[in-house]
Records
---
Amino acid sequence: MTQQKTRREQIYEVAGTLFSERGYHATSMRDLASHLGMQGGSLYAHISGKEELLVELVNQAAAQFDESLMPLREENLSPEEKLREAMGRHIDVVAHNLETATVFFHEWKHLSPEAYKKVTDWRDTIDGLYRDIVREGIEKGVFKPDLDVKMTAYLVLSAVNWTYTWYRPGGKLGARQIADQFADMLMSGLRK
Amino acid sequence: MTQQKTRREQIYEVAGTLFSERGYHATSMRDLASHLGMQGGSLYAHISGKEELLVELVNQAAAQFDESLMPLREENLSPEEKLREAMGRHIDVVAHNLETATVFFHEWKHLSPEAYKKVTDWRDTIDGLYRDIVREGIEKGVFKPDLDVKMTAYLVLSAVNWTYTWYRPGGKLGARQIADQFADMLMSGLRK
DNA sequence: CCTACCGATCGGTAGG
DNA sequence: CCTACCGATCGGTAGG
């Protein structure tokens, strides 16, 4: 019962690989086609153009983050548990979608204005999610009262986002373990 | 006594702006030339080719980091002070060289193999610097004994490197203040 | 999905 | 530093 991939999906997949390795502009449609065993012009029987590929990959990544993180807003967890869980899911999405995540973080500047705006809006939403968790933690007295909400959210986001630059599958630690270690250090600090 | 900039330096400067905004491959030599008020072919009277620009910008950024961070190894500071100081200098370099730092973090994959290797070696050196500080802190009993040195260094590096994505000059906080806030949170944790 | 082709643009050079 | 040009390659299309 192996899922049958449409040719279109195969194209997206190879585009994800190449765009993440070389970047969007350094990948030609002929490169892409040859990796799929076809001629450059044949791609256009399946897709409308190069930008469609970038838009699709970026949307795929954003959708993975959204599906994983957004439901957290409604869940009944303590702020500390919620922050830990958000970090776990966030790194999990990066780890299991390394190529699209890399394209997402690296190539979104090359999108057309409309798609570009969607990404900046999305980023604001994720910022908001983390800031809300921090704010709630302060209000409930579990986080330090003098934390700067924005800076705290940046610190957490740095940790989870930067993983795409160094995480490689097959390492000793899985995504959740990395997130737990980061969360432990962030919660209680490095100092003895 | 305003420093007189050579034409060559002006070219690097504009290349830094354009490469950081649009990316290396999305910037044409004619784009670059027109921003300098000259014709595309005229650039080659001053530089040898497009890649030289990328190599130079990446080297400039690496040199700034090195000059600022490397002397720290010899300084007689407690591990905590040393970590805080490293973060301060690191973010300071990013903040005062935003364009070259962005090119450095974003475009180094497009370097030729030799220049590429220099960057990965450099990155290992910086990793080593932060890991040594963490290790020293554990050995001297000022950091928690059960810290994972590698993960701890990744966490710190995430915070200082990721700044290039969100820091913009003119904000309320200067580089040192950002670093201090990050260091405070990392040292003593978010939990009350 | 291929062949053959389009106009545009690329990095770079020659000669002045 | 400009004019004029080079071969190569780009994204994309027509017709089959």
---
Amino acid sequence: MEIDLGQGRSTDQVRPHNLSMVLRYLHLAGPLSRAALTQRTELSRSTVATLVAELTERGLVVEGPPRSPSGPGRPSPEVRLADDGPVVLAVEVGVDSLAVAIVGLGGDVRSQVRVDRERSPVAAREVVAEVHRIGGPLLDAQPAPLVAIGVSIVGVVRRTDGLVRIAPNLGWRDEPLGELVAEAFGADVPVLVGNDADLGALAEHQRGAGVGLDDFVFLCGEVGVGGGVIMDGRPLRGADGYSGEVGHVAVNPDGRPCRCGSRGCLETEVGEPALLRAAGVDPTRGGREAVDEVLHAAARGDERAVRALREIGGWLGIGVAGIVNIFNPRRVVLGGYFADIFRYVDDQIGGALNSRALPATGASVEVVASRLGAQALLLGAAELAFAPLLADPTLFPGVPTETRRAG
Amino acid sequence: MEIDLGQGRSTDQVRPHNLSMVLRYLHLAGPLSRAALTQRTELSRSTVATLVAELTERGLVVEGPPRSPSGPGRPSPEVRLADDGPVVLAVEVGVDSLAVAIVGLGGDVRSQVRVDRERSPVAAREVVAEVHRIGGPLLDAQPAPLVAIGVSIVGVVRRTDGLVRIAPNLGWRDEPLGELVAEAFGADVPVLVGNDADLGALAEHQRGAGVGLDDFVFLCGEVGVGGGVIMDGRPLRGADGYSGEVGHVAVNPDGRPCRCGSRGCLETEVGEPALLRAAGVDPTRGGREAVDEVLHAAARGDERAVRALREIGGWLGIGVAGIVNIFNPRRVVLGGYFADIFRYVDDQIGGALNSRALPATGASVEVVASRLGAQALLLGAAELAFAPLLADPTLFPGVPTETRRAG
DNA sequence: TAGTTTTGGTTTGCAACAAAACAAACAACG
DNA sequence: CGTTGTTTGTTTTGTTGCAAACCAAAACTA
């Protein structure tokens, strides 16, 4: 029961912190003049100069000529992320597809491959082999230094070690996905694994519909329903990293039984199979085309499709209202197939919020569709992989030039 | 859409941070030798010496003789919080009672008064007048400098300004409670208002059943059900501060209608009135005696009381399981009247967790009763009031001795 | 009483940022 | 086309705050 309040701070932790801040501004806001950096960081000009110099020396940023239309006064050189800076490998293991991408700082997707997948259980080793088959060439084809691998997975991931505790749609239990990936790529870089909805939230927070918001929830509709929560500007994790699993919020007392043992969970009522079933499409087909079929039918005015969407929208609204009551987010971002059906269910979600959310909480929330769409998970995986470097840019370049305090 | 990553850090922000850390260690862990402080903070001896010297000069701590049974080596003087250091006024506006206390650093309750209250709507001004009537003498009777007033209220509080948006049990809507209290006491100190469950969580985290845990949920049973959530060591707030309002999680599809417009909410199924009604006690009576009556009856083996407790336990278990799924806490702490009935409902909550919580999440959680009991809310209010001072001890003593950077 | 251990106190050194003074680069204006 | 004003980069100097090293002090141990 030792109380641990963390460590005291010494002067030499100031520098990494400030380096991190400058790098993160460039990472999120894009190229900025040195003058703009001094303004944003509220540091002095001399300090920003030394910080940029150090980042330049480390090969993370470059200073270019000032942007053309400058005002009066001496123009300030533009600082931007180096083209030959570090990259990460982002991997997305989804229900319907596998994707791999090379991503640089600033969310810059250098190359990308996506392949379809059968919607059936597969061994983890097979998936990893396939990932390596399509990802290997990408890695070989690019010269920039790889610093980490980030993996997004449709499943529940333990925070401490990245173990995939359960991934129902893949038929996995307790698969050490990170280790398998590291092994396959023979890479001596860290491999970080995250839940897809958590990573979607991360990506939307930084480059999507959650930019500038400290408190929002990302809701990801697939076969199941995943949730990723950002509170106070930081991902909600929980004791083991399972926080934000909102797929099993109860929405329909008379609903179908759920694999969690309950009945009428959000997941069973608004997962993709529920929509297809309601619309009279074979739910075992699944995938984007099946959903598109329903949407097209609805656009044509097909009665059954419209009714199906309305039904899903109703339950989704109830679920969103519950989530809003619990988390009090500023915004709810709908991703996965929810983004596709959003314009058909928007009104109903609004209605549910009006009738079921607590007045104070419901009034201040906004529901929108994902802005990153299919890219969200890959970008989130990249973000996960870049996180350590962004938190302490002195980790790069990798070869430690001097002894560093353990952390 | 300006991205704000906060400010860069300069060397002179290091000192306040380290002062804060030392003070918080003493605040939470009690008296510590200087040697122990160097160990915990991982700072050098010389730094700790100057930090303690500054805190001593500010009148926050004192150095006393070493504790008697010391080992070999030069004994290290014991540093403890100053007896004549700052105090706060803690106010608790509950359903059944009002309480006021003078609290020093370290959670030291110097004096305290509690009076019963009728369970009926009252004007905010009347409540505040009563608080002043019982709290004024306490303030007059103690010499230490008052630095803030903290108020716990059974209601939903807006974070930005402490406005009480709604307090159903008091019949309040949009009452500027903080302003009223400040006015009544004519005090020129800040008045901070917080939701009771949030403050209970804060108190349990620091001095109760949540000590040392980074992730836990405090569930407070009264007429309604409030929730306070600590995640990653910090209170969950949400966009407006309404986060953690778990009273309206759906637990019973066939339950009674709730004032929120839904039906079978956690609050309607396990609030105090639900227990009394199930046990055949007049629910309008309410209060501790009524609950005690049920508990005594159950202890005697009274069939109806036992069944009532089992019924409540069942719904509470379902609610807890839902909350556990969403937040993945390490522990759930039951406060308010839940603490009193805990030993009767323990098993059922465990059963519900087994059957309804997701395996990974449910396995790592523990449900316990509050350790602070009736003191929790007052201590939480005190903690709220002390928070600014603990975060930056240079705020004390109040008279600014030199210009300080705005922030 | 002498040796060992641990800590407090003091001095010295270093890292990092701020502030001030100066130089450079541009726009606007006459 | 030169002058003036504005803004920024650069260099120098000063300050803050922590660590490390050394010595002295205060206990225990034999």
